[in-house]
C-alpha cells in the first residue's frame, strides 16, 4: 500500500483536452503537494477552468492523466489494466474535492443551513444532527453564524460566496478548487471572501485558486502558475512569477491585470 497522505494531492501528467477541433489543454504537467496553495493565473480562454474541471472530473481528459490523492478519479488500475470506476465510487472520490465557482450556485429555495447540510446527508449519509453540528461550526468559521436561517437571496454576494465555501468544506475535502471566486463580487465585498480563503490556507488546506487578485496570490500562494493557450508557461514562487517573470507572455498578462 502506498501512503496516500504522504504523497502529492494532485499529480497531473501530460493532460490534453479538446472540444471538437479546439485544443484547450496541450500537455499540462503539475504536482501539488499537501498543504500547498497554487494560484493559477492566465488570460481568459487560456484553459484554467477546463483544467480545474478535469481535476474535479467534471470533464474527462483526452490524453495523459490526473491523480488526486494518488488515484484516478474515474478509473481503477486492476491487474495492470484500467477499468472504469463505478459511478458510486466516482461520486465518493469527487466528494473529497470541494469546488467554489464564480457564481455561487446556492439553492435559492433552501436556507443557508439547509444548503450546507444537503450534500453530507445525501452523499455521505450523515444524520441531520451530525450534519447540522458541523454546518453550524463552519458557518461560524466563515463569519455567518447568525445567518443560518436566511435564504441566499437575502444575503450579499460576499456572504453567499462564504456560504458556498462552508458548503464545500462540509464534505471534509482534502482539496479545494476555486474558480475566480471573487470575480462576480462588488469590489467592497472581495476582501471578506479572500479573508476566509486566507484563513483556510493558513489552516493547511490544499488549494488551487484561479484568480486575478494578484495581491492575494503574492501573499497566500506557495506557487504561482501562469497558463497561456493551454500550456503552463512558467511556475514558481509568486514573488518570482508575479514580481519578476521570465516570459514575455507573463509580463504582458500582468501588465493588464496589475
Ligand atoms: P479560462 O478559464 O482560462 O478562461 P476555459 O477553460 O474556460 O478558459 O476555456 C478555454 C477555451 O475552451 C475557450 O476557448 C472556451 O471557449 C473553450 N471551452 C471551454 N469549455 C468548452 C466546452 N464545454 N465546449 C466547447 N468549448 C469549450
Ligand atoms: Mg475560467
UniProtKB/TrEMBL annotation:
Lineage: superkingdom: Bacteria
The ABC transporter domain, residue ranges: 10-254
Keyword Transport in annotation: yes
Keywords carried by this UniProt record: Amino-acid transport, ATP-binding, Cell membrane, Membrane, Nucleotide-binding, Transport
Annotated EC: 7.4.2.1
Species of provenance: Streptomyces malaysiensis
InterPro entries per the UniProt record, alphabetical: AAA+_ATPase, ABC_ATPase_HisP-typ, ABC_transporter-like_ATP-bd, ABC_transporter-like_CS, MetN_ABC_transporter-like, P-loop_NTPase
Record family assignment: Belongs to the ABC transporter superfamily.
Protein name: ABC-type polar-amino-acid transporter
Gene3D superfamilies with a match to the protein in the record: P-loop containing nucleotide triphosphate hydrolases
Upper lineage: Bacteria, Bacillati, Actinomycetota, Actinomycetes, Kitasatosporales
Localization in the cell: Cell membrane
Matching SMART domains: AAA
Membrane topology listed for this record: Peripheral membrane protein
Catalysed reaction, written as an equation: a polar amino acid(out) + ATP + H2O = a polar amino acid(in) + ADP + phosphate + H(+)
Class of the enzyme per the UniProt entry, highest EC level: translocase
Gene Ontology MF, one: ATP hydrolysis activity
Gene Ontology CC terms: plasma membrane
Protein's UniProt keywords contain Cytoplasm: no
Amino acid at each position: 500500500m502506498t501512503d496516500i497522505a504522504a504523497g502529492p494531492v494532485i499529480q497531473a501528467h501530460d493532460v490534453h483536452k479538446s472540444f471538437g477541433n479546439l485544443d484547450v489543454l496541450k500537455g499540462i504537467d503539475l504536482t501539488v503537494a499537501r498543504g500547498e496553495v497554487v494560484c493559477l493565473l492566465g488570460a481568459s480562454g487560456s484553459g484554467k477552468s477546463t483544467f480545474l474541471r478535469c481535476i474535479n472530473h467534471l470533464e474527462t481528459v483526452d490524453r495523459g492523466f490526473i491523480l488526486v490523492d494518488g488515484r484516478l478519479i474515474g478509473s481503477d488500475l486492476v491487474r495492470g489494466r484500467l477499468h472504469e470506476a463505478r459511478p458510486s465510487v466516482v461520486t465518493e472520490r469527487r466528494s473529497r474535492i470541494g469546488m467554489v465557482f464564480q457564481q455561487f450556485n446556492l439553492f435559492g429555495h433552501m436556507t443557508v443551513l439547509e444548503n450546507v447540510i444537503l450534500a453530507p446527508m445525501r452523499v455521505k449519509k450523515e444524520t441531520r444532527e451530525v450534519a447540522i453540528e458541523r454546518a453550524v461550526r463552519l458557518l461560524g468559521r466563515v463569519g455567518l453564524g447568525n445567518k443560518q436561517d436566511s435564504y441566499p437571496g437575502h444575503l450579499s454576494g460576499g456572504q453567499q460566496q462564504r456560504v458556498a465555501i462552508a458548503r464545500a468544506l462540509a464534505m471534509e475535502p482534502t482539496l479545494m478548487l476555486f474558480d475566480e471566486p471573487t470575480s462576480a463580487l462588488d469590489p467592497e465585498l472581495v476582501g471578506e471572501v479572500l479573508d476566509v480563503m486566507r484563513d483556510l490556507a493558513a489552516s493547511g488546506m490544499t488549494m488551487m485558486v484561479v484568480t486575478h487578485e494578484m495581491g492575494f496570490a503574492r501573499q497566500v500562494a506557495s506557487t504561482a502558475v501562469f497558463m497561456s493557450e493551454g500550456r503552463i508557461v512558467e511556475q514558481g514562487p509568486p514573488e518570482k512569477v508575479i514580481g519578476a517573470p521570465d516570459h514575455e507572455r507573463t509580463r504582458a498578462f500582468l501588465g493588464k491585470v496589475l
